[in-house]
Amino acid sequence: xxxxxxxxxxxxxxxxxxxxxxxxxxxxxxxxxxxxxxxxxxxxxxxxxxxxxxxxxxxxxxxxxxxxxxxxxxxxxxxxxxxxxxxxxxxxxxxxxxxxxxxxxxxxxxxxxxxxxxxxxxxxxxxxxxxxxxxxxxxxxxxxxxxxxxxxxxxxxxxxxxxxxxxxxxxxxxxxxxxxxxxxxxxxxxxxxxxxxxxxxxxxxxxxxxxxxxxxxxxxxxxxxxxxxxxxxxxxxxxxxxxxxxxxxxxxxxxxxxxxxxxxxxxxxxxxxxxxxxxxxxxxxxxxxxxxxxxxxxxxxxxxxxxxxxxxxxxxxxxxxxxxxxxxxxxxxxxxxxxxxxxxxxxxxxxxxxxxxxxxxxxxxxxxxxxxxxxxxxxxxxxxxxxxxxxxxxxxxxxxxxxxxxxxxxxxxxxxxxxxxxxxxxxxxxxxxxxxxxxxxxxxxxxxxxxxxxxxxxxxxxxxxxxxxxxxxxxxxxxxxxxxxxxxxxxxxxxxxxxxxxxxxxxxxxxxxxxxxxxxxxxxxxxxxxxxxxxxxxxxxxxxxxxxxxxxxxxxxxxxxxxxxxxxxxxxxxxxxxxxxxxxxxxxxxxxxxxxxxxxxxxxxxxxxxxxxxxxxxxxxxxxxxxxxxxxxxxxxxxxxxxxxxxxxxxxxxx
Length: 655
Hints:
By secondary structure, the protein is α+β, with helices and mostly antiparallel strands. Helices cover 73% and strands 8% of the residues.
């Protein structure tokens, strides 16, 4: 639960407490509570006391409720929001996730109101960000990972706005943990590395844990040498900042690495190191894992007596602290050993223990599913209430507008003044209507250009398929058609969207380039890279780069008649999304000469449509959108390829 202290209780600074040692903080708070100067001071002190009782949720709940009563009675919105957050924390510690979500939702509503009323107050933004992070953890604990990510990204945005770099690193780690659980290892690595970059910059000692997590991801991906490199770096960091629990976890990871490499003696040595540290600190959770690992590795070597002893100790520790997964694994290991030795009675006894633990885990998952459904209902109910509240606010606004008009009609102004006001109002309404129509026209024009782009793209692909059938035969044509159908499915999925996530555009380009590799018998390689600074919800108009990539292949690589390469890059520079397509083909001028020598000069409709799309983007966003085409020259002054650079305004698909 230490993450609660770090993420949820970040606002201890609100209470302006003196920097005493941990053992004296509560005494100091209780002394100040005897003579509070104001209700705000009293509510703040009660919230600070509640936050200190992290390991005693009943007392945490008691003082948080007292703080809420004082703040609610005095109309102190910020202190009331903090009280609800502390109540939610107490409920999380007690595994009452539905109640925790309700408490955090109350805190969220109060803080959102405060942020709207005072947009430049970073204290309110930080408070709201902490609540979003709390809701993210509740959702993650119940395996509701999409909602967890949604609220982590909300928290991330606010923490970045207020410059809370250390907390941003914590949120990045939480996001990485979710992606690791979902086995999306590349995404997990991306966010762990973002956290590590901040931790190294700020000198955060927890960077060793992040490096160890990165190593675990590499090990899961099968990149064993990178995993070992990360583990070695983490060990050096642990040497600078003492953290026995983190170091013990790292030793277990070293053991897993050596076990994977069949270096059993090395694995046993590291598992024993981890076990010694865990037992020294009384950490039975980690000790049970180390004992389980030792049981596994002794069983693999046929050392059954040693394996039985380790499995029994592991199961006992895990049962004592309620870690059912470890109980299940250890009891299964014992049952298997006794079965191999022909001891049916012992094998049956431990198999029963294994089955009991497994059933409890299944029951626990069922309870989680029920809680998750209840939480989803809470989210839906909250959204419905928010819609009703917005409708009420709109009705009130309309009523106030009518009353204002009535007051204007009876002010006694002269006819000339009334005429002037009426004319001014009419002119403004017409201007607003005209601007709205212009905006809508720009949007519809962009969608029309995109729809025009799709059939052109399909015609080009169908022409490629026809050529491929003639050149390569039925079997390769079927493979080509399979890839083409996948590409069409992706295209249709976002054909109605003005913007799609950049990852989707990359996926479409990947499929298209693989098709063209088949068509031209792999006469070129390609690489697509994305700047880590580009967030998941940054958007780009669909199929915007495809015509440039097609030209690079048809007019650059193919006429070259030797193996070539194409490099596509997405990066951020000066608040612009810069998309670059580079090929090592024959160059612009030579390509134009070849076109002039052909019997029929083909006019590129795709490039014309793309040019219009860029003009519409510029008109719609009021920001510069341009394309540069450069011919590359090698050291001998000869053409060595072409580079297309698109400078686009940053847009977000979620908007």
